[in-house]
């Protein structure tokens, strides 16, 4: 948990900006769009198809800031 000792508002903003940039990359945007098309308007399907993609993108970004590269790093 050493990431908590160095965490500032600016670090938080940087992480969020990096996550948004990564989500908006063409390859990730396409994956999310395809998952949304499969899910349609069903919330459960969104959780099955879209949520895991977005969560993996977040994990890939936060590990660069010292967070655990798993779901614990997102909590």
From TrEMBL:
Keywords: Cytoplasm
GO biological process, one term: post-embryonic development
Highest taxon in the source lineage: Eukaryota
One Pfam family here: P_C10
Subcellular location: Cytoplasm
GO CC terms in record: cytoplasm
InterPro entries (UniProt xref): P_C10
Family label: Belongs to the UPF0456 family.
Descriptive protein name: Protein C10
Protein species of origin: Lutzomyia longipalpis (Sand fly)
């Amino acid at each position: 948990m050493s990431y908590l000792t160095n965490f500032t508002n600016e670090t938080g903003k940087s992480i969020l900006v990096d996550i948004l940039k990564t989500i908006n990359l063409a390859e990730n945007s396409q994956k999310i769009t395809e998952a949304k098309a499969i899910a349609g308007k069903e919330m459960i399907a969104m959780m099955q198809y879209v949520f895991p993609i977005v969560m993996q993108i977040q994990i890939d970004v936060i590990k660069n800031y010292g967070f655990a590269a798993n779901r614990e790093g997102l909590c």
